[in-house]
Amino acid sequence: MSPHTLPPGSVRSAAEVNEQIRALWLRAGGTLSAQERAEYELLVIEWAAAIRGQVIKAA
């Protein structure tokens, strides 16, 4: 399991995932490699799920 993979049922907040996305861009210097792009895509999917979860809780 990669360090960025969470067990099923584990959910990080959108803020936590966003912070990881920002850190990835900083490490990459603004240009993502193929591996970094794949990581970024997974993080964005996770971030979107976290945002949806926050909206559902607020409703």
Quick overview of this protein structure:
The protein has 59 residues and is mainly alpha-helical. 68% of the residues lie in helices and 0% in strands. The protein has helices at residues 14-28, 34-58.
Q: Structural class of the helices, strands and pairings?
A: mainly alpha
- Principal-axis shape equals elongated
Radius of gyration, in angstroms, nearest whole number: 12 Å
Quickly count the helices: 2
Largest sheet: none
Global mean pLDDT? 85
- Helix and strand string, N-terminal first? HH
Describe the structure.
- 68% of the residues lie in helices and 0% in strands.
- The protein contains 2 helices and no strands.
- The longest helix has 25 residues.
- It is elongated, with a radius of gyration of 12 Å.
- The mean pLDDT is 85.
List keywords for this structure.
mainly alpha; 59 residues; 68% helix; 2 helices
Summarize the helices and strands and which ones pair or pack.
Blueprint: H1 14-28, H2 34-58
